[in-house]
Write a structure and sequence with these properties.
This protein is mostly beta strands. 8% of the residues lie in helices and 51% in strands. Keywords: Cell outer membrane, Ion transport, Iron, Iron transport, Membrane, Receptor, Signal, TonB box, Transmembrane, Transmembrane beta strand, Transport.
Length: 832
């Protein structure tokens, strides 16, 4: 698709004219750099559009829309281009023809699907089908947003299948501080707040994912989103009967099958829907063990009148996998990727890989409803219900006569197997059952230039989490991963380190008002939200505090102002607030060692909630070249930071109060609309985050004030290049993450690293019942054979240090995620 000599000459003349125009603008007194930038970008678009106009466009005098919408089939996308922003803003239309594909790719989103247009007055990025469909079918949503500004993704396997051991942070705030919505449903468990994104939808069913860096929308049913909001949207069912099938094979014995069937419009009911099923098996990329996942998605929709829509959404997920061992720096240096749990069982050993099995089975149900009540009134309501059950297990060794139940001797243990020694190997079982339901409702009234919204969100959460032990068979086998034949104390009680029951209720009231002026160029928004959270916790273990809890409320105001300089250029400023409680059930209970009876953790009474105040100022340009810039500042009190510790070999989540923190930075994002089938993309962020005070360790304090905050790399960069001519397609993505500290004293860190991913494929013509069949190859982590990708377990200090009061504070070693090695996935996909 080369450019001929006449086109080249025309381009040169247009570029020269634009340089002269730019120099005239620069000489005018009072011109802002922002206006100069927007003028220059618009002139560049006009230059390219002028040539395309002669070759492709038909003349027009009326703007139809400002951005290319998602397309179906070969429907053309009409995009206006301004030839002279400063004077008469003469407009013409450039026709961008969307491609036809079975996977939903249209090749119309800037940056190869990485930069859909945004208008909200805060930093917001996203990905569309143009990007999602070209990723490995095994990738989870967290791994797919890795290229967006401010995102640090800490992988733990190259296929993206293990989302129980991965890290995500945005602007230095980890995944428990990022709200996760799926079709408007909050799907992260309300206490642990881990997203478990593979529990929601298969990649083939995801229409878009949006990341808001900073505070969430005031109407969102979230109370933990101090670091932003991740929103996942399902595709709507087709109006015609059909479906999609995908078969994937790859590294580590990967095998995956997916099928989806659309009902089309069902008679004259106005209802349409789809159901899909997928099955996946693969070996762990290091060590041994096979993982598997069964998954079901469904969505049914009914639309009527103008602006009325009711949906029903369901997702069922059944995964089984094994924990991968997280090394310290010393262990990584000695063993590298070979540091893992043992392949074979040895008598008396507790590090056998089959003891590290975990399961997180979930069912998500939701029924979003949007109603147009007339007279400017509209009602949006989303009832939802989620149930989850599973276990997180690990290996341990128990004394037959010297074990403790809480702070009391357990006596001679029962159900200890056939081993007659003084101690025996056992599996430590952390099983759980939890469900949470809720209702989020917003009533809006639009009158003239003003829109007023009021709403209420209620959520109920119930979790039971006992720990159990079960003796191993002579070859390391486990009779029941749920502890059906659990070890008992001499008096018949179940031997347990903790037996926790938690109930949480959340009530949230909000009001938001938006006013538009100057022909909708100026938008003023102000809102207020009051969120009240109540937790009641019981711990049914001898010697422990039986009942604990907490009630907290937080006022959460937000203000935002945006102004459209031109139809393609926008500036905005906002001020936001957010909060969250500790993201760990373990913060509220006592724990005693099973082997010694010594207390290993004391319950926290009324732990302080994290509270954040943030400010942003930003600029956007949308067009042939789209640009988004933002400067941000955050101040935190009682910064809650999650870390992983171990209780009798079982990994548990703990919450550390990191005190005050300040974070300042800048981010940029640039993407090109498809031009000669190419769509480049680049994003970058600079972050300076510091701990503001010394942290308490025992009866002393480490000198952490002024240190760089943990998990907060200064520089992140992502570069992408996509090509798609309708038949041949491919993309390259590179991510760079600078050094990250793993201790509050900054005495240990992981080095910077880069990841490289490549995909390419070919779409065939439709044949008989096969619609747009295609073959696709994804190559992940090219050139990498394992690296430290993130921090799993934090430490205040890795080396011994003198405290503020002169005490010697011993160091402890952090643990790390190991980024996956190279992997490839070959996929065959077709519509029908």
């Amino acid at each position: 698709m080369g450019t001929d000599m006449s086109d080249t000459a025309q381009m040169f003349v247009l570029q020269c004219c634009s340089f002269k125009a730019l120099s005239r603008v620069a000489k005018k007194p009072g011109r802002l750099a922002l206006l100069t930038l927007s003028t220059w970008l618009s002139m560049q678009e006009a230059s390219a559009a002028e040539l395309n106009h002669h070759r492709h466009a038909r003349p027009a005098s009326k703007v139809v829309q400002h951005a290319a919408p998602p397309l179906k089939g070969n429907t053309p996308a009409v995009v206006p281009v301004h030839h002279d922003v400063e004077s008469r803003a003469t407009e013409s239309m450039v026709v961008h023809k969307g491609i036809a594909s079975a996977t939903g790719v249209t090749n119309t989103t800037p940056g190869g699907g990485l930069m859909p247009p945004q208008t909200v007055a805060k930093s917001r990025s996203g990905i569309t089908r143009d990007f999602i469909a070209k990723q490995s079918p095994t990738a989870n949503p967290v791994s797919m947003v890795a290229s967006l500004p401010g995102v640090v993704y800490s992988s733990n396997d190259p296929l993206g299948t293990n989302d129980d051991q991965q890290g995500l942070s945005v602007r230095g705030l980890d995944q428990t501080e990022i709200g996760y919505l799926y079709e408007g449903i909050p799907t992260a468990a309300p206490v642990y707040l881990l997203p478990y994104t593979s529990s929601t939808a298969d990649n083939e069913n995801i229409q878009s994912i949006t990341l808001t860096q900073g505070s969430p929308d005031i109407t969102s049913p979230l109370y933990n989103a101090v670091g932003g909001e991740l929103t996942e949207s399902l595709r709507d069912p087709s109006h015609k009967f059909g479906g999609l099938a995908n078969f994937s094979y790859g590294s580590f014995s990967l095998r995956r099958e997916f099928i989806r069937v659309d009902t089309g419009d069902i008679g004259h009911t106005g209802i349409r829907g789809f159901l899909s099923f997928s099955a996946r098996t693969a070996d762990e990329w290091r060590g041994v063990g096979q993982t598997r996942r069964y998954h079901v998605d469904g969505k049914f929709v009914k639309e009527w009148g103008e602006g009325n829509k009711a949906s029903f959404v369901l997702s069922y997920n059944d995964p089984l996998q094994y924990y991968l061992r997280a090394p310290t720096k010393t262990q990584w240096g000695q063993y590298g990727v070979n540091f893992n749990y043992a392949d074979k069982y040895k008598k008396g050993s507790s590090d056998y890989y089959k003891l590290q099995e975990n399961l997180h089975r979930t069912l998500i149900l939701g029924a979003p409803v949007n109603l147009n009540l007339g007279h400017g009134l509209s009602l949006n309501t989303t009832p939802y219900f989620t149930y989850a059950t599973g276990y997180d297990n690990g290996g341990t060794t128990l004394s037959r006569t010297g074990s403790y139940y809480g702070n009391q001797p357990a006596g001679i243990l029962q159900n200890t197997g056939t081993d007659s020694g003084s101690s025996f190997s056992a599996i430590s079982i952390d099983k759980y059952n939890l469900y949470y339901s809720g209702l989020n409702t917003t009533l809006s009234w639009a009158k003239g230039n003003n829109t007023l919204a009021v709403g209420y969100w209620y959520s109920y959460f119930d979790q039971s989490e006992p720990s159990l032990y079960e003796a191993l068979g002579p070859d390391g086998q486990v009779s029941s991963m749920y502890g059906q034949w659990a070890v008992r104390t001499q008096n018949g009680s179940l031997l347990s380190q903790y037996d926790i029951h938690l109930i949480q209720q959340t009530n949230s009231l909000f009001i938001n008002d938006t006013y538009k002026a100057l022909n909708d160029r100026l938008t003023l928004t102000a809102g207020f939200k009051e969120t009240m959270v109540t937790r009641k916790v019981t711990q049914n273990i001898p010697g422990t505090n039986y009942q604990n809890g907490q009630s907290d409320a937080a006022p959460l105001p937000q203000v935002a102002i945006s102004y459209k300089i031109t139809p393609h250029d926008q500036i905005y400023i906002n001020g936001t607030t957010s909060f969250r409680l500790p993201a760990s059930i373990m913060s509220y209970v006592d724990r005693y060692s099973v082997s010694t009876g010594a207390q290993t953790r004391s319950h926290t009474v009324n732990p302080k909630a994290e509270y954040a105040i943030g400010e942003e100022i930003g600029y956007r340009h949308t067009g042939l070249v789209s640009v988004a810039l933002a400067l941000f500042n955050y101040n935190f009190t009682n910064r809650q930071i999650n870390t992983t510790t171990y209780a009798s070999g079982t990994p548990v989540t703990e919450s550390i109060n990191g005190g005050g923190q300040t974070a300042r930075g800048a981010q940029i994002e640039m993407g090109l609309r498809p031009w000669h089938h190419f769509s480049p993309y680049v994003s970058a962020q600079y972050l300076h985050a510091t701990t503001d005070n010394n942290l308490q360790v025992g009866n002393d304090y480490v000198r952490s004030a002024g240190k760089i905050a943990v998990k907060s790399p200064k520089v992140t960069v992502a570069v992408g290049l996509s090509y798609d001519d309708g038949s041949i397609f491919g993309a390259f993505n590179m991510n760079y993450i600078s050094k990250q500290y793993s201790t509050f004293m900054n005495d240990e860190s992981i080095p910077s690293f880069e990841t490289f991913n490549l995909n390419f494929g070919y779409r065939f013509n439709s044949y008989m019942y096969l619609k747009h069949p295609q073959i696709q190859l994804n190559l992940m982590n090219i050139g990498n054979n394992g690296f430290l990708s993130g921090v799993s377990g934090l430490s205040t200090n890795a080396k011994s240090t003198k405290g503020v009061y002169g005490t010697t504070i011993a160091g402890s070693s952090p643990t790390y995620f190991v980024g996956g090695g190279f992997a490839g996935v070959l996929s065959f996909t077709t519509g029908f």
